[in-house]
Amino acid sequence: MVESRNLKISSGKKIIFAVLVLLVLLILLEIILQVAGVQSRRESPFFLLLKVHEYPEYFQRHPTLFWELVPNKQIKGDFIAKGEYRINSQGFRGKEFEPDKAANTIRICCIGNSCTFGWEIPEGNTYSELLETALTKNYPGRKFEVINCGVPGYTSQQGLTLLKDKILDYRPDIITLSFGWNDIWGAGKGITDREQKIHSRLIINLQNALAKLKTYRLLKYVLLELSEKKGLESFDHENPAYRVSRDEYRENLAEIHRIALENGIIPIYLTSPAPDARVYFGSGTITQLEKLFEIHEQYNHIIRDLRDTRQYWVVPLATYFQNQPGLFDPELKDYIHYNQAGHLQVAELIANYMKRYRIIDNIMGENNLNR
């Protein structure tokens, strides 16, 4: 009996010892990986061509938005395009702002993807910042606050969720919406944004905590390399499924419109510009981007149709950008994000649109703002 008890104690000690040894080895491995600066990054199998999940320095997982920018962050790194980006306490790019809107202030939230965020655009030159300057000039003595709510990689599905989860709390008078490019990216495993599994806050917090460990990221990298196809290899080219289908895109925009109007917000949609192939490649040139541009234009057509059939407010940026050189990367290495000249053009077009249709004047009249 005594021998059996000693045997159990001895076995228990061995297990504890083994666990302690494993823990020490994991700690040593983590230290080595940290010191060596080892990076193990691989795109998510569910969001093709997007690597936000592999950059916990800049992004964190979110239960309904899938990801969001890490608040209170000064970004300068190897994923966010070259430059420095200030992320405020609300998790958006730009200067700090109070969630509660100040009195006698017209607040505008610019919701969108990396084009709105300002990919490679220096601080002070994004169209949201330039729009605030333009409106202040057009309406002397009025107070405007334009907030950049663009997040890299976002689709209209995420924009709809963002509006419900965060933007409504800011009580904006106007929202602008710019989506399209990410909506037409391939849906990994054929699972659209709308079909993505929603995890609990507990699981999301655990994933965010573990993602800071290089050991965990290396293990995940190895498992994905062994079990998952890379990038577009997992995309069904014969029967493509996009992150947001055309029907879902229309439904998302309509739902955004409904929610905005119910909350006294004016929604203004922006068609999404693409570089003109004739300007960049010459007339008659056929490029591999032709099909992509064609699909992109189909999503723009949905916005125009909503304007024509339901009287949505729409600023036709894509039309204004046509036949204009110098608004994108001259070498067309980046055919999605417009440059500083493009951002200035966008800001001026939105400001002129608001002035032409007296949108600001009507808001000031309805809210009895000081004249």
Provide tags for this entry.
9 strands; 5-stranded parallel beta sheet; single chain; 371 residues; Rossmann fold; alpha/beta; two-stranded antiparallel ribbon; 12% strand
What can you see in these coordinates?
The chain has 371 residues and is α/β, with parallel strands linked by helices. It has a domain of 243 residues: SGNH hydrolase (Rossmann fold). Helices cover 43% and strands 12% of the residues. A five-stranded parallel sheet has the order 6-5-7-8-9, with helices on both faces. Helix 7 packs parallel to helix 9. The protein is globular, with a radius of gyration of 24 Å.
Please sum up the structure shown.
The protein has 371 residues and is an alpha/beta fold. It has a domain at 88-198 and 235-366: Rossmann fold (3-Layer(aba) Sandwich), CATH 3.40.50.1110.
Write the layout of secondary structure elements.
Layout: H1 2-36, E1 59-62, E2 66-69, E3 73-75, E4 85-87, E5 105-112, H2 114-117, H3 127-138, E6 143-150, H4 156-165, E7 174-178, H5 201-210, H6 214-227, H7 246-262, E8 266-270, H8 277-281, H9 290-310, E9 313-315, H10 317-321, H11 340-356, H12 359-366
Parallel strand pairs: 5-6, 5-7, 7-8, 8-9
Antiparallel strand pairs: 1-2, 3-4
Radius of gyration: 24 Å
CATH architecture of the domain at 88-198 and 235-366: 3-Layer(aba) Sandwich
Show unreliable segments.
Answer: none
H-E order: HEEEEEHHEHEHHHEHHEHHH
Biggest pleated sheet:
5 strands, parallel
Q: CATH topology of the domain at 88-198 and 235-366, anyone? A: Rossmann fold
CATH class of the domain at 88-198 and 235-366: Alpha Beta
* Portion in helices: 40-55%
What would you call the shape?
globular
The secondary structure category is: alpha/beta
Tell me the β content. Answer: 5-15%
- As laid out across the biggest beta sheet, the strand order is 6-5-7-8-9
Number of strand elements: 9
